[in-house]
Amino acid sequence: MKKGLLIFSIFLCINSIAQTKTTGNVVEYFGKEKIITTAEGNVLYHFINGYTLQTESRTGTLFNGQDPIAWQYAVGKFVNPNKEKGNWQEIEADSAKVFSGKPMRSGFLYTEYNASKEQIVLLETTGGTRTYINGQPHEGDHYDFGYTLVPFKLRKGVNEFIYTKGRFGRVKSKIIVPSKSIQFTKRDLTLPDVINGEKDEKWASIRVINATEKDLKNLVITATLSGGEKATYATDAIMPLFVRKVKFKVPAAKADFTGELKMNLTLSDKSGKVIDKIEITIQQRAATVHHERTFVSKVDNSVQYYSVAPALGAGPKALVLSVHGASVEARNQARAYKQKDWVHIVAATNRRPFGFNWEDWGRIDALEVLAEAKKVFNTIPNQTYLTGHSMGGHGTWFLGTTYPGKFAAIAPCASYPDISMYGSDKGDEMHDMFKAFEPIKRSANSGRVKSLVQNLKQGGVYMLHGDADSTVPISQVREMRQILGTFHPNFCYYEYPGGEHWYGDHSVDWFPIFEFFKRQTIPTNKEVKEIDFHTATPAVSSTDYWIKLQQQIRPFDFSTINAKIDKQQINIKTVNVSVMELDLVSLELKGEITLNIDDQLLKTTSDKKAILNLKDGKWVLINEINTAEKYAERQGGFKFAFDNNVVFVYATGGSASERDWYLNRARFDAETFYYRGNGSIDVISDKEFSLEKYKDRNVVIYGNAVNNSAWNLLLKNAPVQIDNQQIKVGDKVLKGADLAAYFVVPRKDSKTAMVGVVAGTSEKGMKATWANNYISGITGFPDVMIFKADLLLNGLPDMKVSGFFDNEWSAKTLEFFN
């Protein structure tokens, strides 16, 4: 989490090791026979020798899209280190075949394998943020999960592998010949508990390896419990050379039981032919003890889980949402809490133990779990609370300030308010000198907790922090105590004497927090007479009790709405507000209402919503929201394309290199979203796409108007047009073979769906789209970014266009840079 302004990058070059001879499961290294297998096949090759070369690079938090190796591949300047040794220094892996040590924390690892024939294999990697296989990017394993299996075609002759810096300073890599071209893998299951007495089938997911060059469709998974109970589900399609985590159903158990159950899974085609079988273990429990539940996310139709510490006894109960710290599983978070007699405690996952810092898709996961738990447990609506530890302490501040009215009280523990300001370099100060950074920074404003903290005014706050915490300095929470002291009437603060970052389960299961929660309830709309609402964008946070922001004057800049009810008059002051709503019906006022908004008087009635629109400096009442413009449900910010059951559509036109790149580029994003967000995204070709089949779903297009046939269906009249020679932005034209773009626009045939684009001009341009740092919970991405391939080396000086479309989705407000 801590970053320095300058990081030394190390390139590690690995020579081919001694000739390897494979016969069945026997692999011979240096004349000594060893049986080396994995669950998925036989190990063909390990990498153990190499070289290092030091260089400098710059990084950041909100913007970090530079990579010298990506640049070399994009502009055709990469040279195999074995051919040009230069200043490379030798290095060897340790006895466990792991490359480790300080240089690996910020380095690149080069390996190569000289293959005697062409075949489809798997690359298994631990450590390393990303991997290039023969110049094509793939997701790595920088958290050392051990999940990474990348199917690829090994070409005859030299094959190049480069692994970018690893979080923990170690990389291990090997090539596996799969035992089957299509098979299950047990790595990274998402499973519910079978709950005694519950008769419904539960969602689960398992990864299926497609080590073929064909799409896998019409697959069926049958799950059979040891008692004979069976559930069958027609599961998700899998793109070529991909490992997808696909859905299946777990049957309900006929008899009550506590403990492990064996469950057999069968993968079949539509004719019933069995492709693979596997046995896994699942837990059966009573609903009255700690347990795990699953649901299907609206983001990508994937299966996610949450963990529960259920309330003791029957009857209506309150609900606490607990958000975990970095590297913590939700199941462990929930088990840190003893069961209470008055409240259910549910722990969301953030989609992964590290996940998205509870921002972006982590934020969505928290909201989805909250809604799911309310439905499953039928909790008392006005007794909903929020707490969390460490990264989850940040999540508590962030979610609490972002969603006023959802929680009666919050309790951040061992917390920091703002991740961009947590660390040695304080985020992105290095980029502030560049004008192009302003839209990037602004697009991440929704995470600036201290700018939103006034939203906590209606609810209680309890802050808990160990006074000896060396991981999150206590200065972080003391600052929040000072800020709250200037306006907040209902908060408590406690420094645990001698408490380090974690000092036992009472670091979160703290009796005074739950006693404080008991005294708090969410007021009804009619009880809230005064609102001071702050938000960075209605795309993330639009509502504060009876006020809803629909549109801003300046997207992703901070907006405020101060409103106070005085009998039959509502006095309102606004900053950066273009369209807003007042839910007057919920206030239960009678008769005519006077609205005094920015010193302008308007009359309306109390029996309907009041929708206010600022036009030419004057407020007017309008009848409905214009959904063709930006509004709360569709605002922009490129990252928002990756939501709403998104589908990736890759180009099949153009040259062979274009087809290969865009196919792999979509695959790379799907791999990354899987790894970082437990995701499972539909990836299809442009030939398969139709407006009706994928109606009202978000779409991300990989390719331009020349090579992706879906462009004409979705983007024919978009304000940004891209072909192989130029990018047209409104009435301006940028020419060049090395231009790349990310942008998002509304889907014209839908009121809510969006279209994102990852595209470039010719080969240099398309390869400049290497970076997918938008699949991150911290980075900033405005509506549009257009840049030269040299940005991968030089950073922001090579940004050509960035910014936000105006509220009519035109390019008039975008900024151009020389």
From TrEMBL:
The record's annotation in Gene3D superfamilies points to: alpha/beta hydrolase (3.40.50.1820)
Q: Where is the signal peptide?
A: 1-18
A Pfam family that the UniProt record links to this protein: Peptidase_S9
GO molecular function term, any single one: hydrolase activity
Asked if the keyword Repeat belongs to this entry, the reply reads no
Going by the UniProt record, its keywords in alphabetical order are: Hydrolase, Signal
Tell me the domain of life.
Answer: Bacteria
- Peptidase S9 prolyl oligopeptidase catalytic domain: which residues? 357-517
Q: Read off the InterPro entries from this record.
A: AB_hydrolase_fold (IPR029058), Peptidase_S9_cat (IPR001375), Plant_Biomass_Hydrol_Est (IPR050955)
Reply yes or no: does the keyword Hydrolase apply. Answer: yes
UniProt name for this protein: Alpha/beta hydrolase
Its taxonomic placement starts with: Bacteria, Pseudomonadati, Bacteroidota, Flavobacteriia, Flavobacteriales
